[in-house]
Amino acid sequence: MSREVEFLGTLMPGLLPVFLISIVLQIILDRIMGKIGIYRYVWHPPLFRLSIFVSIFAAVGLMIYR
Fold first, then answer.
1. Cα–Cα distance, 55 to 49 (Å, whole number)
2. pLDDT of the residue at 13
3. Mean pLDDT to the nearest integer, 1-17
4. Which residues, in sequence order, are bridge partners of residue 4?
């Protein structure tokens, strides 16, 4: 994958598609964990959600760029 992606004549970072994929995966995982009730056992749910997103973003980015 290249470092830049051309979209309508503008160059965007190559990690933009990875970011968008990570957002979709985060939304799906967040809804599943909300229905299961995991957030009742977490001290700070917004911080937990952010850490999950960062982990997903890093994992997807490493899978694609590796």
1. 10
2. 87
3. 80
4. 13
